[in-house]
Write a structure and sequence with these properties.
By secondary structure, the chain is mainly alpha-helical. The protein has 17 helices and no strands. It has a domain of 115 residues.
């Protein structure tokens, strides 16, 4: 597969909304644009205001009523805005994030949702990965959280939030959970020191073995790979191809595997003239191009281009020639 950027597609992306242009310039073209214009975009301002909301925003996490399974709330609004490359100081969210950190338990973990234990990193990891991107990678409180996660790694290199999979549990030694692996690796991928850490190779091996065996009845932790997984959707709130590829592209080991390239090739076959469209949408983001299916989505196209760029950069840094 040729992963080189198509200039015509880049020009099309640059002609989009100012927040897309900022992401393209900073993440695809390695420029150093100011986020000022993107932050002034009214659609972006709307999300920032929503993140300040006491019920569904970051302050709402203390109630335990905000759920990762819904969109248009603290989990996925911050995920999207930090995906663009915006930070807490620029969005004036420092007070809200400081309030969130008050939820941290003595062992470094968080309970962000009712009916979820502190070891449900597949839930808290979604939000904490965005907090890391928002400018808190080196915060000591993040280090405590990550350190606890690392102490719970399973023998196969992944994670599982079920107590029956830990030491002494009846499922000890069985495969880890694909969703746990995805969300935890999403967080760990924000740190340079972990991107080349071989401790996590097993977690990726499970994700790509799951893809390879997608037509079998094998369902680790009851997760299967069907139509919904293969659908281009943003944000990919559950276990989906776009987020698996995005997370894997952060890790050189993962992005060099045959499983990654096969999955990326599957996704790229969905393009029309190099442009990608949302195949499933969330009404909470209807004002954005990934919240409709009638026209190609610059944002989803950008994400695919970013995945390809990361993989190509990793190959080049490793001295490989696989990507042309």
């Amino acid at each position: 597969m040729d992963t080189r950027m198509n200039q015509e597609i880049i020009n099309w992306l640059l002609d989009g909304p100012v927040w897309v242009r900022f992401a393209v310039e900073s993440q695809l073209l390695d420029m150093n644009p100011t986020p000022r214009t993107a932050l002034q975009d009214e659609s972006i301002r709307t999300l920032i205001r929503r993140l300040k909301d006491e019920k569904i925003g970051i302050p709402g996490l203390k109630t335990g009523k905000v759920t990762w399974a819904d969109t248009g709330n603290a989990y996925w609004d911050l995920f999207f805005l930090t995906d663009i490359g915006l930070t807490a100081p620029g969005m004036d969210l420092e007070d809200e994030i400081e309030e969130f950190f008050q939820l941290q338990l003595p062992d470094g973990t968080f309970i962000t949702e009712d009916d979820h234990a502190a070891n449900y990193f597949c839930v808290s990891g979604i939000f904490l990965s965005s907090v890391a991107r928002a400018g808190y990678r080196n915060d000591a409180r993040m280090a405590e959280y990550v350190g606890f996660i690392l102490s719970t790694q399973q023998p196969d290199g992944g994670w599982h939030c079920g107590d029956d999979h830990t030491s002494g549990g009846k499922y000890k030694g069985s495969e880890s959970c694909p969703m746990d692996n995805l969300n935890i690796l999403q967080l760990l991928g924000q740190y340079d020191e972990y991107r080349n850490d071989a401790r996590f190779n097993g977690a990726f091996d499970l994700l790509f073995e799951h893809w390879r065996r997608r037509d079998e009845r094998w369902r680790p932790s009851d997760f299967g790979i069907g139509k919904r997984f293969k659908t281009l959707e943003y944000p990919a709130t559950k276990y989906g191809i776009l987020r698996v590829l995005d997370v894997a592209s952060l890790f050189p080991y993962a992005s060099a595997t045959n499983g990654f390239m096969d999955m990326l090739d599957f996704a790229c076959q969905k393009s029309v003239g190099g442009k990608f469209s949302a195949e499933s949408i969330h009404e909470a983001y209807s004002e954005f191009d990934f919240g409709q299916t009638k026209e190609p989505s610059r944002w989803i196209t950008f994400l695919i281009e970013r995945i390809k760029k990361r993989a190509a950069d990793s190959a080049a840094n490793a001295g490989g020639s696989e990507f042309g």
